[in-house]
Amino acid sequence: MTAPAHGLLDGFRDLRAIDVTCHLGQWPYRLAAAASADDLRDHARRHGLRGLWVSHLATLTGFDTRTGNEELLRACGDDPLFAPFAVVDPGAPGWRREVGWAAGAGFRGIRLAPGDHGSPPMSLLPVLEAAAGLGLPVQVLVRLDDARVRHPRSPARDPEVHELADLVRRAPAHPLVLSGLNRGDWRELSRHLGDDVPAWVRADLWHVNGPTFVADEWAAEPGRRLFGSGYPVQTPEATMLQLAAAAMPEETRRRIAAGSAEEIVPLHG
């Protein structure tokens, strides 16, 4: 990495960011893409992060979600660095029980992965309503990897943006984070919604790729943007460099890095 890039990463560390898109466990399509709880702690120390939203990758590929959710609590639940998110499969018969269990077990939010669980986006609506009733924010993992380089045996299929727009129209007025949208996706979502995306709908940054100046657009709506790296499925430094290099006021950069996330999930400790 070049000296200017190292300098930008030093600047990113100074932001004391919250990473809203982290994962525990092994990504099945790339051996190097794995993280234990200690790896996640190292990720936080290395980049100056003061909070991580995290779920378990096993909940996406196993026979159930409970096993991975329980392992997440065992590995991370006692550390205030982590905000554990329970993954729920809306196609499973007991999903409503799982949402209630997650609220009682101390999870800070719910994650849904329609592309990995084979769930039509509108099937997420009852889960959004149940989570809102329990005060749990919801993060929808629209994608975890780029479809252009996805493993050919992966069953994941990205939801269509117009389907997400239909979901947003009917979603309760409660924090909803869309993870993995790229620049074009967000513009298309805004067109479908008539440039009136509800204020409680936010998006993370890991898939807003391209030249660093693309991040300059984030300054227009800092309350809608959350820093999320996709670690360990994605290489986190790319998104960190985009945010650190963006031409925006420092107050705006800090809100994107941490402030907006802390409005949704206040840090412990």
Question: What would you note in describing this structure?
Answer:
The protein has 269 residues and is α/β, with parallel strands linked by helices. Helices cover 40% and strands 15% of the residues. The longest helix is centred in the C-terminal third of the chain and has 15 residues. The relative contact order is 0.16.
Q: How would the global form be characterised? A: globular
Sheet/helix structural class: alpha/beta
Number of helices: 11
SSE string, helices as H and strands as E: HEEHEHHEHEHHEHEHEEHH
How many strands appear in the DSSP assignment? 9
Mean pLDDT: 92
Strand order of the largest sheet: 2-1-3-4-5-6-7-8-9
Strand percentage: 15-25%
Helix percent reads 25-40%
Uncertain spans: none
Query: How many strands, what sense, and barrel or not for the largest sheet?
Result: 9 strands, mixed
| Amino-to-carboxy terminus distance | 34 Å
Q: What's this, in brief?
A:
With 269 residues, this protein is α/β, with parallel strands linked by helices.
Topology (SSEs and partners):
Blueprint: H1 3-14, E1 18-26, E2 34-35, H2 37-47, E3 51-56, H3 58-61, H4 66-76, E4 82-87, H5 95-105, E5 109-112, H6 114-117, H7 125-133, E6 138-141, H8 161-170, E7 176-179, H9 183-192, E8 201-204, E9 225-226, H10 236-245, H11 250-264
Parallel strand pairs: 1-3, 3-4, 4-5, 5-6, 6-7, 7-8, 8-9
Antiparallel strand pairs: 1-2
